[in-house]
Design a protein that fits this description.
By secondary structure, the chain is of the alpha/beta class. The chain has three domains: about 80 residues, no CATH class; about 200 residues, Rossmann fold, CATH 3.40.50; about 80 residues, no CATH class. Helix content is about 35%, strand content about 10%. It is built from 13 helices and twelve strands. Strands 1, 2, 3, 4, 5, 6 and 8 form a seven-stranded mixed beta sheet that branches. Strands 9-11-12 form a three-stranded mixed beta sheet, with no helix packed on it. Helix 3 packs across helix 4. The longest helix is centred in the C-terminal third of the chain and has 21 residues. It is globular and about 65 Å long.
Length: about 425
């Protein structure tokens, strides 16, 4: 087959044509985008074979009467390098000073922070398909999928400096055991530990919910620290509970950060960043323009929340909705339970109360509304040029599950300082 026109990245990755699901590799699109973003730094070798296979399948589907050889597919891949434009909101730094991988990547909170510090992301994984859409829209790369699969792990390159992971919290089966590496099997931390053991990055940067401290009566955190320190050979200072509100965003969000350095680096001290002592409040991130009526609560739903809260208060519980004042600090944004109802706000700018969605009753006239997805993005420290390509329900979930970018940035800065000091000292 002679290529009479260049086959673009958009044509293979986009909607010009689709490969039938039964013929498509779940790794193809991820491998292709990772190849294109790493073609000039030596990492592309880890992705080239699968990228060529992906293009070959795509071309066979588009040109069923042509003989598509691997050579043709490879030629098409090289054409893409000429046409490929990294025209995305958050491109990699032009002259990166370290490399990192982004596990359980979500929508890229770690990536934004680490790129701002001069990092080049050479591998990313995330299993949620909606989160992948948001990640691709902002960084141009499609994350690989389930990191618990050996097939996914085989794409992880060698030679990166920092492993970043906001892994979910799970209990370990350590009754009667020493709580070591083998005792974490079946949990997502085991997969993180397995990657650390094999790839031996200079540093690790883990984030988790505050509840990890007391999870399973403290056994979970004890096991994690034991594995990192004793089994894997990392200097790990005591983890720190960090609050997003201390780093410039008006959200009371506490998360545990775990930092570690490979023992042979000789790093024996680490200080987590100190609070910025910057005064912030909701009005700093509030929408400047009038918000759609769809975010305003109906009178029926508002009354339901009021009665629900009264019932809990009569039992001595503090559970229920909460309205954040313009000068107040938001509660932690979370994707489930009362996530949105715990962060209601007053906004009296609405003039047209005609519903645009199916609601019971009329729109409330007290100006009570939910925060918008963009406001949640700002509460997490995402810049306003961060693209939100998904429906509101998915957007709330994604920002609720994300890391707070400014806190990650501040901690990452201290990590990189020590890594660079080690490199300069060699």
């Amino acid at each position: 087959m002679k290529l009479k026109e260049k086959i673009s990245h958009e044509e293979v990755c986009g909607q010009t044509f689709k490969i039938r699901v039964v013929e498509a590799s779940e790794y193809g699109k991820a491998a292709l985008t990772h190849y294109l973003y790493n073609h000039n730094n030596g990492v592309s070798q880890f992705y080239k074979k699968e990228a060529v296979h992906h293009i070959k399948r795509a071309l066979e589907y588009k040109f069923p009467d042509e003989n598509i050889t691997s050579k043709v597919a490879e030629d098409a891949l090289q054409y893409m390098l000429f046409d490929f434009k990294k025209d995305v909101p958050f491109p990699e730094p032009e002259k990166p000073i370290f490399k990192f991988i982004d596990l359980f990547a979500g929508i890229g909170g770690f990536r934004i922070a680490m790129q701002e510090l001069g990092g080049k992301c050479i591998f990313t994984s995330e299993w949620d398909e909606q989160a992948k859409k948001t990640y691709e829209a902002n960084f141009g790369e499609v994350p690989f999928g389930d990191i618990t699969k050996d097939e996914t792990k085989r794409f992880i390159p060698e030679g990166f400096d920092v492993l970043c992971a906001g892994f979910p919290c799970q209990a370990f089966s350590i009754a009667g055991k020493r709580g070591g590496f083998e005792d974490t099997r079946g949990t997502l931390f085991f997969d993180v530990a397995e990657i650390i053991k094999k790839k031996k990055p200079k540093a690790i940067f883990l984030e988790n919910v505050k509840g990890l401290v007391n999870h399973d009566k403290g056994k979970t955190l004890t096991t994690i620290l034991n594995v990192l320190r004793n089994d894997l050979g990392y200097y790990v200072p005591e983890p720190k509970i960090m609050n997003a509100k201390d780093f410039g965003v008006p959200q009371n969000r506490e998360r545990i950060y775990i930092v570690g350095f490979r023992n042979d680096l000789g790093i024996e001290s680490f200080e987590y960043p100190k609070p910025l002592n910057k005064s912030v409040s909701f009005e700093d991130i509030k929408e400047e323009k009038t918000v759609s009526v769809k975010y305003y609560l109906s009178e029926t739903y508002l009354n339901t929340l009021i009665n629900h809260k009264k019932r809990h208060e009569s039992k001595g519980n503090g559970f229920g909705y909460e309205i954040i004042s313009d000068t107040g600090i938001a509660n932690a944004v979370v994707c489930g339970g009362m996530g949105r109802e715990r962060n209601l706000v007053y906004d009296h700018r609405l003039e047209d109360f005609t519903p645009v969605t199916h609601i019971k009753g009329e729109v409330n006239k007290e100006g009570i509304r939910k925060m918008t997805p963009r406001e949640w993005a700002r509460l997490q420290g995402f810049p306003d040029n961060f693209i939100i390509p998904v429906a509101d329900a998915s957007a709330y979930k994604q920002f609720g599950n994300s890391v707070a970018v400014p806190a990650i940035h501040a901690t990452g800065k201290e990590i990189i300082k020590r890594i660079l000091a080690y490199v300069d000292g060699k």
